[in-house]
Design goal:
The complex is a heterodimer of chains A (about 550) and B (about 130). The termini of chain A are far apart. In chain A, the strands form two sheets. In chain A, strands 1-10-9-6-7 form a five-stranded antiparallel beta sheet. With about 550 residues, chain A is an alpha+beta fold. Chain B is an alpha/beta fold and about 130 residues long. In chain B, a hairpin with a 3-residue loop joins β1 and β2. Chain B is globular, with a radius of gyration of 13 Å. The chains are: A alpha+beta (about 550), B alpha/beta (about 130). Chains A and B meet through loops of A and α2 and α3 of B.
């Protein structure tokens, strides 16, 4: 390939010079010119052979190094210009010798520039065309080696201008040369016409070749570009296979370069899209997994809530079934409520009329669950039965009897170690209140002073041991009209707010102080509202019971 | 020389039990509400096993730093006492409850607890 520009230039140049020389072949001077032309052309060939050596080395090596690629690229881009200058020099030399040999004729000198410029332009175009494949190969090698080779843009307009200038100048010069020769050497008309015709034919031939060459150089890259774009736009086209070879460094080459850059960007966009799709797919899978896990958790939560709701209903059913419906003892205004928690608790209270008054009992079984619920029901039954069986028994006697029966049931029948905080109050219609059994302090609001007293309950819990007669003491207090007794379980005192602070006895007393003048039902409602506001979801059930001396 | 036996810690409660031969001393601080009753019962059980199998003659429960104990946790304590009662007579050990006069609930509840097994449980109060 490296020899192609050399051979083409030599053949074209030698042929043109020989044709001109043939028009003058009958003269001695023409032979001299012909010899000079041959010598000049051979000298050009020798110089071009030296200049194209880097290209030959590049094309001969299988894996060219960076230095070889750079040298070949440089030579390839300098080659057309050097070939053109050589041709120009050759023509100048030829006609300089011719001028000396023919005693310097002014008209002959006028022929020299035209022939020289025409040869210059044609040589440049032929060398550009012929070295194009080598330049493409060098560009690819440079790209593979990531070598930044210098590119000098030769615009298409420059190339067309050179071509047109060369053809026009060569035709004019040839015509002038033939005319000059006919006049100077008194050629026959027939030879004159033959010279003009042969020159015209040569010009036409070169013009045709040039036109084809220009057409090819113009349309070939465009066809490649169009094919590449068609491949890109085709459904399923692979961008990475559609780099357009940049065979020219003109406007078309710029378009190709921009197209290649666009392809690179499209490839990057495609990669980004593929990556985004992969990431989206991964995220979607993760989202799906999270969604499934969330749904499973929601289902479990729903099941748990259903279970808790069912258990709460059971707990409420168990606990409320043992509570007095309309607690009433003559001489007392009574109201009470029990708020169950999520688990079965052991809160208990009862109001039992008895001769001369009645009995009020309140208790709390330790722990939660089925055992606590059962023990609470046992306590309910045992207390009611004991009070009914012994209507005149004192508070202390009732507590001792209830404990004996309850402890036997807890220890023997249930095999449990639960205990019950329990206080029993025996009310006499004169306002006397006797109490026994250990539970929470009794809050007594005195109407006369508008303040609360805390009355400690002494003794043992139920269920600790069978006989608690020795430890059980009976205490008493007297209620004046309007006085209020408030009984409660530890669920009120232990209710915690968001900071973990317990509701405590002080807040309970404050609520009693603030609401005891109202009806006992309102007082109970105020206390439960206060506890609920403090702790919307209490962990333990709680009970409050209020009785006002009428 | 003491070595750890068991411990538990929540936001509002802590228990640390150490072997201080010939005793095991468990120190409780904070508030023992019903939310920790199950874990507290397990800790008491671990102490009981360590005492019963370690040739220890006495366990000490230091409650001076315990501001409150729910009935569910007292039940856990009673269960521990019941476990002591269930041992063979020669393997039973005594339990000392160290209370503080500053906490009213201790005065009332611990004496009741002692009644559960007066031969095994002793309550001492420090001012």
């Amino acid at each position: 390939m490296a020899r192609r520009p050399l051979a083409a230039i030599i053949v074209a140049d030698l042929g043109f010079k020989a044709l001109v020389g043939l028009t003058l072949v009958e003269e001695v001077t023409s032979a001299v010119i012909l010899v000079a032309a041959v010598v000049a052309t051979l000298a050009q060939a020798a110089l071009l052979a030296v200049w194209t050596r880097p290209i030959a080395r590049f094309l001969a090596s299988e894996s060219p190094g960076a230095d070889v690629v750079r040298a070949a690229s440089d030579a390839c881009w300098r080659l057309p210009r050097r070939a053109a200058w050589l041709t120009l020099g050759g023509w100048v030399a030829v006609f300089a010798i011719g001028t000396l040999a023919t005693a310097a004729d002014a008209e002959l000198l006028a022929f020299v520039p035209g022939a020289a410029v025409g040869g210059f332009c044609l040589s440049h175009l032929v060398a550009m065309w012929d070295s194009a494949p080598a330049r493409v190969a060098i560009d690819r090698a440079a790209g593979a080696l990531e070598i930044d080779v210098v590119r000098k843009l030769v615009s298409f307009r420059q190339r067309v201008t050179l071509y047109a200038l060369g053809i026009t100048t060569m035709a004019g010069a040839s015509m002038a040369a033939v005319g000059f020769a006919a006049e100077a050497f008194e050629l026959s008309r027939a030879r004159h016409v033959a010279g003009i015709a042969s020159t015209f034919a040569l010009v036409v031939a070169f013009s045709g070749i040039g036109a084809v060459f220009v057409g090819i150089t113009l349309t070939q890259p465009l066809r490649r570009l169009a094919a590449a774009i068609a491949e890109i736009t085709r459904a399923g086209g692979t961008l990475s296979m559609n780099r357009v070879p940049r065979s020219a460094h003109d406007e078309i080459g710029t378009v190709i370069a921009q197209t290649n850059a666009m392809i690179v960007r499209l490839e990057q966009a495609e990669l980004d899209r593929t990556r985004a799709e992969a990431e989206f797919a991964a995220h979607f899978a993760q989202l799906e997994e999270t969604f499934e896990a969330t749904m499973a958790a929601v289902e479990r939560e729903l099941e748990e809530r259903t279970r808790v709701t069912a258990e709460m209903e059971i707990a409420a059913r168990i606990q409320t079934s043992a509570l007095p419906g309309q607690p009433a003892i003559a001489g007392l205004e009574i109201a009470g409520t029990m708020i169950p928690a999520s688990k079965v608790g052991g809160d208990y209270y009862d109001v039992l009329p008895a001769p001369g008054g009645g009995v009020i009992a309140i208790g709390d079984v330790s722990g939660h669950g089925v055992d606590a619920g059962l023990i609470m029901l046992m306590l309910h039954g045992i207390t009611a039965a004991t009070v009914t069986a012994c209507p005149d028994a004192s508070a202390r006697e009732l507590v001792v009897a209830i404990n004996r029966a309850l402890t036997a049931n807890i220890r023997t029948r249930l095999g449990a170690r639960d205990f019950v905080t329990f206080t029993l109050l025996r009310y006499a219609s004169d306002g006397t209140l006797h109490h026994a059994g250990q539970h929470e302090d009794i809050v007594v609001w005195r109407a006369a002073t508008g303040t609360c007293e805390l009355v400690e309950t002494a003794g043992l819990w139920l269920g600790v041991k069978p006989d608690i007669a020795a430890e059980t003491v009976e205490s008493s207090l007297r209620l004046a009209p309007g006085d209020v007794v408030v009984l409660y379980t530890d669920g009120i005192l232990e209710a915690r707010d968001g900071t973990g602070t317990q509701f405590g006895i002080e807040r309970l007393v404050a609520l009693v102080d603030a609401n005891a003048r109202d009806g006992v039902a309102d007082l109970v409602a105020a206390i439960t509202a206060g506890v609920r506001a403090w702790c919307p979801e209490p962990a333990d059930d709680y009970t409050v019971l209020a009785a006002r001396q009428q | 020389m003491s070595e750890p036996v068991t411990s538990m810690e929540t936001e509002r409660f802590a228990l640390v039990a150490r072997r201080e031969t010939p005793r095991i001393v468990a120190k409780l601080t904070g508030t023992a509400d019903q939310a920790i009753a199950v874990e507290l019962g397990e800790a008491f059980r671990a102490i009981h096993v360590a005492v019963a199998n370690g040739g220890i003659t006495e366990a000490v429960l230091d409650l001076r730093g315990l501001e409150f104990m729910s009935s569910a946790c007292i039940k856990a304590l009673l269960t521990w006492i019941g476990d002591i009662q269930d041992l063979e007579p020669d393997r039973r050990y005594s339990l000392e409850l160290v209370s503080s006069a500053a906490h009213h609930w201790q005065k009332r509840s611990l004496n009741t607890v002692r009644c559960f097994a007066t031969d095994l449980v002793r309550v001492t109060t420090e001012e």
